[in-house]
Amino acid sequence: MNTFTLRKLVLILGLLVFTAGSFAQVGEETKSENQQLEALGLNASSTSDEWIAVYFEQEAKYLNLENRQVSTAGTEILDLISRKVQELAPGTFASYYIPYHELVPSTSTKTLLDQASAAEPNNSLVFDDYVAQGEMNRDASMKKKYSKKLEASSVYSLPTMEYNLNVLNSLPANAFLITYGNDDTYPLWIWQEVFNTATTVTVINVDLLANPDYRKNICQRLNIADFDATELDAEARIDELLGSPNGNVYLALTIAPNILKNHSKDLYLTGLALHYSDGDISNLATLASNWENRFARSYIELNEPINRNYDLMFSVLADYYKDSNNQQMLQELETLRSDKQVKKTKTTSKKRPAAY
User: Fold this and answer.
1) Any idea where the domains of the chain sit in the sequence?
2) For the chain, give me the number of helices (H) and strands (E)?
3) What is the pTM of this model?
């Protein structure tokens, strides 16, 4: 049973009414659950923020970034937190938001999101979820409204925002870009919705493919058959998308290295994106042109985690400039690379990783 189905089943079972003959067993189970909860640092007096923090801390601990799935042990812990927050902290933001996060985002689960937002209207955790709802349901006004709120909340650091701008600057018009999580998806939508940048690019988030309506729309646009994503890990979902006859499909550099490695012979670097093609492409001139003419560079030198993704591009560009005997550009590149190693900043990004 996949993670999504398992979580939904556990949540449903948690709502069932037990018979009188099972009260003693329930008492023992509740005691055991409370002990597990105490071990996590949670109890009836925990604040909503504490419930949220522990939940996402445990999710990050058990999330396999290569396949975008939570382990069985992690699923049991997350489901425990989801059940107990509803029991011990009813009516709070966490009591609605955690159960929403447990389920595959859909129109029906939006009720939980609305209840969480009503409890704490200014909690920025819901902003990207509403952006996703707008994307999945093709509600343009919702997507734009919450993209603006997300941008104004400064959830994403300036280096992260610039990185994503440069991702868009690595793509041609009408490209399809496959992305992997929060930091490489929602800033792209902010650029498109708030700043009208690269609006013809279609961003395809691997996690959101679990939503049937979203996936069906993406499959139609890529001219491929619809598929059941709930039984597929991230790599299998991406494989389905790469079956498209469309020649304008790109992958984000933030996708798990093992997935990129498996497709390496068909990937061509154009900046901070990889053009997928089963035929040879002369990409180096395009790469150099994007770097020299289109990239923003205000925060590239800062040694922030997302900026590590520039390293591949810098390495390929260095070889290109050497081979073409372009000493001026090579020197500029080497100076930037050396400066990047010593300049550091503390990220202002407060967002947790997404794992629907």
Assistant:
1) 3-123, 158-342
2) 16, 7
3) 0.84
